[in-house]
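Annotated sample (chain length 89).
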Amino acid sequence: MQPAKSIKGQQPQIATLSPRQAEIAELVAQGLSDKEIGNKLRMTEGTVGWHLKRIFRKWQVHSRAGLAVRFLQEKPPQPMPAIYPPPRT
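Output written by the structure step:
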C-alpha cells in the first residue's frame, strides 16, 4: 500500500510529523497559544516550543501563521457537524 498523495503528487507533509507534532500543529491552526496547548496536552510551554521548532524545521516554515496555513492545506477535509436542533422553517 502506497502513502497518500497530495494534489501535487507529493506525499502530504502532515505524514512527516509524529502524532504529537500533528496534534500540536492542529492546535496552532486553531489559534491556541503555547500556554493553552501546554495546558490542553499536559506539557510545559517549553516542550510545546521544542516541538514547534522541529515542526518549523521539517516543514520549512518560519511562523505560526505559516504553520497554520500549511496544516490546513494538508489536513483532509472534515465533515460539517450536524446542527441540533434543526433550524425552523
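Annotation: Residues 29 and 65 are 8 Å apart (CA to CA).
Annotation: The helical segments are 19-29, 34-41, 45-59, 64-74.
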